[in-house]
């Protein structure tokens, strides 16, 4: 796998920040997004035809005053995985409070496309280990 995988992950975060669907063209049709480690409303999205995807896209407009900014602070390729440490920020719609979080994710590639995304939240060490990396 080449440096191209890091650029694909970067482009996915840029698309999410813009609020468009360009990232859907970059990932595999059977893309799995595993948010089962989330403390609030954990879920697993299975495939781009999963009805949960449309629900999630609508909810981001209900929860946030402005679309979240997904800023990669660190993207590291390791075999067929990319470790991503990102800063997410936005304002809550109801409270107006600025929300900022730094979270770790691992993207797994198959045939040159992201096939799986796993959210690790603040557990950077677990994400690094899952990507085959060390602190």
Task: Tell me what you see in this structure.
The chain is of the alpha+beta class. It has 4 helices and 6 strands, in the order H-H-E-E-H-E-E-E-E-H. The protein has helices spanning 4-18, 22-26, 51-63, 124-130; strands at residues 32-34, 44-46, 69-78, 81-91, 98-110, 113-121. The model has no long low-confidence stretch (mean pLDDT 92).
Please supply descriptive tags for the structure shown above:
single chain; 135 residues; alpha+beta; Nuclear Transport Factor 2, Chain: A; six-stranded mixed β-sheet; 4 helices; 6 strands; 30% helix; 36% strand; globular
Backbone structural class = alpha+beta
Query: Mind telling me which CATH architecture this is?
Result: Roll
What's the tally of helices? 4
Return the CATH topology.
Answer: Nuclear Transport Factor 2, Chain: A
CATH class reads: Alpha Beta
How many β strands by DSSP? 6
Spatial order of strands in the largest sheet: 2-1-6-5-4-3
Overall shape: it is globular
Ends: how far apart? 22 Å
Low-confidence stretches: none
Fraction of residues in helix: 25-40%
Radius of gyration: 14 Å
Number of domains: 1
Mean pLDDT: 92
- Tell me the strand percentage band: 35-45%
What is the H/E string?
HHEEHEEEEH
Most strands sheet: 6 strands, mixed
């Amino acid at each position: 796998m080449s440096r191209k995988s890091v650029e694909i992950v970067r482009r996915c975060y840029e698309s999410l920040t813009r609020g468009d669907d360009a990232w859907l063209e970059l990932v595999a049709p059977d893309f799995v997004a595993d948010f089962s480690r989330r403390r609030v409303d954990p879920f697993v999205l299975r495939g781009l035809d999963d009805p949960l995807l449309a629900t999630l896209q609508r909810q981001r407009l209900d929860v946030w005053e402005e679309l979240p900014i997904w800023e990669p602070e660190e993207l590291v390729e390791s075999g067929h995985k990319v470790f991503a440490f990102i800063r997410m920020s936005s304002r809550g719609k109801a409270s107006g409070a600025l929300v900022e979080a730094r979270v770790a994710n691992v993207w797994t590639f198959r045939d040159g496309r992201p096939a799986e995304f796993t959210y690790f939240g603040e557990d950077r060490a677990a994400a690094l280990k899952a990507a085959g990396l060390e602190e």
